Amino acid sequence: MSNTTATTEHGRTENESTSTGGTTERVDLPGSVVYELSGSVATLTIDRPEKRNALTFETLAGLHEGVRRAKVTRSVRALVITGTGDKAFCAGGDLGGMTGGDAEVAHQGRGQLAALFREMWSAGIPSIAKVRGYALAGGMGLALACDIVIAADDAVFGTPEVTVGLWPYMITVPLLRSTSPKVALELMMTGRKVSAAEALRLGLASRVVPAEGLDETVAEVVAGITKNSPAAIRLGRTAFYQVLGLPAEQALPLLQAGLGITAGTADAVEGIRAFMERRPPVWNR
Q1: pLDDT tens digit string along 199-226?
Q2: For residue 225, what is the enclosing H or E element?
Q3: How confident is the model over 108-137, as pLDDT tens digits?
């Protein structure tokens, strides 16, 4: 099967394949990160199972590059982030690979996690964390930075930084976006690990399913997203994060403006016409 890459007038890229099964692309990125594109779904996999998919500065750079690649590929409608194997989604920072050396270099390197979060939130693409095994420290932050977290029933979440004399500074924002301040602070101060079932109760996971059904559930959720209007999801998701945490008097005018913009899109026109004509809509890609 041959693949070619073409750049569109909008600066995004589209991969064309001779296969009738849809577009397929695999790229090995820095830090043992694998980028795969299949149809409208991009998948980023941390491929360090021998290290429980722990993060290094190089791994963060690879994840950042993968998100940017998905962002500029016009066909991408959803991004799945996961880790190789059944032991860990991501066990946090590789302490051996993220400590020591030049202090200034280390400080700048730690900023890569914040930059990754910002890139994920601004990409305009729904993101889904597919979690098996440990999702700890920065790995838990990476999962929570996704829009949706689908966890196997063997998943374990936690912020154990305090047990080694550190604090989970960089994941505070995604943690507070997922659960209450008191729950977040209790987890951060105790460093205790929570089961998938408790994570669901606390709001850290969107769904918990048997491990053998994880792939199928993620595929179902992705299909449920990608069948809908790309414009509505892009604009609506952006507005959701813009108003998150804002007082109502600030949020409502932004939401009203967003509704006006969305109602004027080609997808809205097509969606309403298709509803009236009792046919499936054909979205503007």
Answers
A1: 999 999 999 999 999 999 999 999 999 9
A2: helix 214-226
A3: 777 899 999 999 999 999 999 999 999 999
**Is position 58 annotated as part of the catalytic site?**
no
Q: 60 in the Ramachandran plot: left (φ > 0), alpha (ψ -120 to 50) or beta?
A: alpha
Reduced to 3 states (helix: H, G, I; strand: E, B; else coil), residue 241 is helix
Please state whether beta strands 193-195 and 156-158 pair in parallel, antiparallel, or not at all (unpaired).
Answer: antiparallel
Measured CA to CA, the distance from residue 89 to residue 141 in angstroms comes to: 11
**What is the reported pTM?**
0.88
Residues 237, 206, single domain; the answer is no
Cβ atoms within 10 Å, residue 240:
12
User: Is 284 a member of any domain?
Assistant: no
Catalytic member of 36, 58, 161, 220: 161
Range of the domain at 24: 3-226
- H or E segment at 187? helix 181-190
Contact between residue 113 and residue 169 where contact means Cβ atoms under 8 Å apart: no
Half-sphere exposure of 200 (CA within 13 A, CB side): 14
In this structure, are 129 and 235 located in the same domain?
Answer: no
